[in-house]
Amino acid sequence: MKYTIVTSFPISNWEIYGEKFLKSFIEYWPTDINLLVYCDGYPLPDDVPKAKNIEYFDLLENDDLLEFKERNKQFNGKQNPNGAYNFYEDAIKFSHKVYAQHMAFYKAKEAGSDWLLWLDADSVTYDYITHELLDEAHKVNEDGELPDVTFLGRKNAYATCSSYIGYALQSEVTQVFIEDYVNYYTSDEVLALRSYADNFVFDRLRTLHEVHGMITKDFTPDCEDLDAFDISPFGNHIVHLKGNKKYAGTSFIGKNTEGTRYYDICRVIEHYERKNLLEVGTWNGETASSMIQSAFNSSDEVHYTGVDLFEEATKANDEKEFNVKKHFTKRSVELKLTALAEEYAKLNKKLTFYLMQGDSKEKLKILKDTALCKTYNIQPDFVFIDGGHSRETVTSDYEYCKNIPVIIMDDYYTEDPDGGLPSEEFLGVNKLFTDILGGTDRTSKKQRRLIIASSDPVKGGGIVNLVMIVNDPKLGPVPEFHRVPIQVKPRDCVPPDNIQDNVEANMKIFDGKMVDRYHWHDGEAIIVSAGPSMVDDIEKIRELQNKGGKVICVKHSHNILIENDIIPWGCVILDPRPFEGTSTHGIVRKELLKKPHPDTKYFIASMTNIEVTKYLHKKKAKIIGWHAYTGALLELQDLQGEQLITGGTCSAMRSVGLMHTLGFRSFHIFGMDCAADGTPEDVDATDLYGKQKWIKTGIMDEDTNSEHVFYTTGELLALAQDFEHLLEKEGVDMDLYIYGRGMVPTIFKTSKYKNLPTFGGSPYNE
């Protein structure tokens, strides 16, 4: 098949990433594949590469694009009064990409190409691209159909990774799609969406067109994080320098691992100032890159040794070692590390590396050969073992590495909140650590051992953790690791069919009165949950309201506020359970909304029990609808592409997400205690299902080295988990002020978030 590639970038970013893209294209792509480059601004640099198969165009000669930019110049991501930048609200930035694809579509079609492939210009090719590779990727899909559009999908509510998109040029369906795509911007319809990003628009259109017969092929259907490109058909050949990677002093910084067990690996390397690293199970080189970065924080010279099967991997071996991940070539990792070394050389730092291809049970024998190790500089002061997972391989890897000063092993499993745990054959590290080494021992002068707990879940059940072993008695105390995030697995509290019936019925009553997305503003949201401390803080709530803040309550705090002459601006309702039933607080739900106030807006989720909505409608309450992100709603075709609001498992946390959608960025949160005051009188009570009602849990305060103990319930624990996840997110664009006592205030006080600069006064994400 005949292919044309298209990309675009502003001339101002030529030296940052445009030059790398073009030079690597010339070196590694077939000369009969044309590249169309749409530059935002002219003239071109004098040193721009010239080749017969590369054409350059001035993107700013497109009148439709210029008119869109002029007409909507205020939608540049800085619409918020404080001028802070929001990536998702930058319609100007993303319009360039869409118009470039539209222009290239027709140019490539006229030239007789079969496919137009978009590649982000912050991509660098490091191994040869062949026609065979491209043809294999773009052949018929799993259903035996030729695709109209190919893309990189991402699970977990992430939008498509739009660093790559493929268009079948001879398809009439695809032509209609590309016209709809660009018209979202030309018509300004994009401004009605909750995000102006090209991938959000792409997904919205793709979903609509798939319903009407467009055939698509997802190259990465199992991608569960942001880095879909890595596991795409091109992952062994092209590196996508996503986000800040393209601006970094080193181009190949590892992925952001904060909040994961891989982050703790890097902390250990930094803590003990390791500089000669061994990794058993190199995979794609990302973890290697992150570890190398950490080592360079304390040394100007770093050596890395990696052991992996690479191309020698077989299906039989994967089954034996319980491997489910895609394999990468040795060459692809060599090229990544070579590029990394070149970048560090610019900083007068030296990176050397040695990759060994083959079975670790054989390759690690080199550690017994002092002379050979010296030849290849394999004198590790740190090893990360994450190769084969069979008990035989785990034990063999440890035996060869057991004298290395600092050892970390992956894949020590513990139960998840539902009691899930991988089956016996997966517990090789567990058996080694417990049965052979003797388990945790933090005080031994010979060998300190501990489990570095994580919250990383395992598909099928269980939590995967790290094991750390320190063999050198001269090394100082082990670093303090973050406490384990609270984990509760929430579920819809009624069957999906019931929720879907509620949605259908509620939409009729809402009659189009739905929550819309608003730009940032300076208003303050006062979220009032119903924890014990809420009553104690009534006067503070009143004070904030008198200063102009908007009070948003949940149903359990609704009556208490009104009885204290605090009229809520809004009340958020989410519960799909029967209106006449008893709440977890032991109150009939209907009683909580017995006297709706005429000045209060009742924000009712479409999944809410229809009887609630009917009741409030009959009472002539002000009703505004919204859609809560939940599995049951994702199955509804009528809601495909609609704004779904995330935030958590309960109305209190969803209130934060809802008010964020309405433009609030300053949040005062009251009554989110998530725990009883002290020890409950019925501490031994059981629930309707015979399970223990109260859960005793503790939160470590690393500043004081003390533990705060709380009694909570599964539902309240889920709320605390949701709050903790909020704090863990990168670049949370909001100011949080937490009042009261209990779990959530303690989580906040012991977090790093409290020390961040205020959102309103910082150049967010510039």
Q: What is the number of helical segments per DSSP (H or I, 4+ residues)? A: 24
Low-pLDDT residue spans: 244-256, 482-493, 761-766
- By DSSP, the count of extended strands is 26
- How many structural domains can be distinguished in the coordinates? 3
- β-strand percent reads 15-25%
Rounded to the nearest angstrom, the radius of gyration is 28 Å
What is the global morphology?
globular
State the CATH class of the largest domain: Alpha Beta
What is the second-level CATH architecture of the largest domain? Alpha-Beta Complex
Walk across the major sheet and give the strand order: 22-21-20-19-18-17-23-26
Distance between the termini: 42 Å
Q: Summarize model confidence as the mean pLDDT.
A: 85
Structural class: alpha/beta
Most strands sheet: 8 strands, parallel
Estimate percent helicity: 25-40%
CATH superfamily of the largest domain: Spore Coat Polysaccharide Biosynthesis Protein SpsA, Chain A
Which fold does the CATH topology of the largest domain refer to?
Spore Coat Polysaccharide Biosynthesis Protein SpsA, Chain A
Keywords:
seven-stranded mixed beta sheet, 766 residues, eight-stranded parallel beta sheet, globular, 19% strand, alpha/beta, 31% helix, Rossmann fold, 3 domains, Spore Coat Polysaccharide Biosynthesis Protein SpsA, Chain A, 26 strands
